[in-house]
């Protein structure tokens, strides 16, 4: 009888130790495997891993030099009351107070769907939630972002980063969401 209890106790202890080891591995290789499997889920497509505190001030994206801005890659963005400076196409707009200090914002599929077919226009106010990303090469800017060659070249030379938006919502000039039926 004592031998049976001792075996049960050892088995229970082994399970506890094994489960503790599994929890610790989630942050290492096993966690990467779980994330990889989860990458096929629609809610995680095109959402890069975020790190650091959320950027809430547009100036953090434009005030420093190019090397300093590259340090912002993968940081989350959560900015409200941002003015749309201009719209390049149905996936790309620029946010900021002026054309010289504007930051490109690329809408992922979820953000585009969330706009429910309402087009963005210059001078609108929006709230942007997303992640800072490194700007792709000129060829990608032309083929995947649908930018003309001159605009793609100018962007690649002026700004090393952009915001990949996961969610964009319209706001009124005062920073509040519009009432239903308004844009």
Tell me what the structure shows.
There is one protein chain. The protein is α+β, with helices and mostly antiparallel strands. The protein folds into two domains: 2-38; 44-171, Beta Barrel (OB fold (Dihydrolipoamide Acetyltransferase, E2P)). Helix content is 36%, strand content 24%. It has seven helices and five strands. It has helices at residues 2-25, 29-38, 59-62, 66-70, 109-114, 138-143, 149-158; strands at residues 76-89, 92-95, 103-107, 125-134, 161-171. A five-stranded mixed β-barrel has the order 1-2-3-5-4. Strand 1 (76-89) and strand 2 form a beta hairpin. The longest helix has 24 residues, at 2-25. It is globular. The relative contact order is 0.14. The model is unreliable at 10-46 (pLDDT under 50).
List the helices and strands and how they pair.
Blueprint: H1 2-25, H2 29-38, H3 59-62, H4 66-70, E1 76-89, E2 92-95, E3 103-107, H5 109-114, E4 125-134, H6 138-143, H7 149-158, E5 161-171
Parallel strand pairs: 3-5
Antiparallel strand pairs: 1-2, 1-4, 2-3, 4-5
Task: Using the coordinates shown, work out and report the CATH topology of the largest domain.
Answer: OB fold (Dihydrolipoamide Acetyltransferase, E2P)
Q: What is the element string, with H for helices and E for strands?
A: HHHHEEEHEHHE
Structural classification = alpha+beta
**Spans with pLDDT under 50 lasting ≥5 residues?**
10-46
**Mass-distribution shape:** globular
The portion of residues assigned to helices is 25-40%
Give the total of domains: 2
Radius of gyration: 23 Å
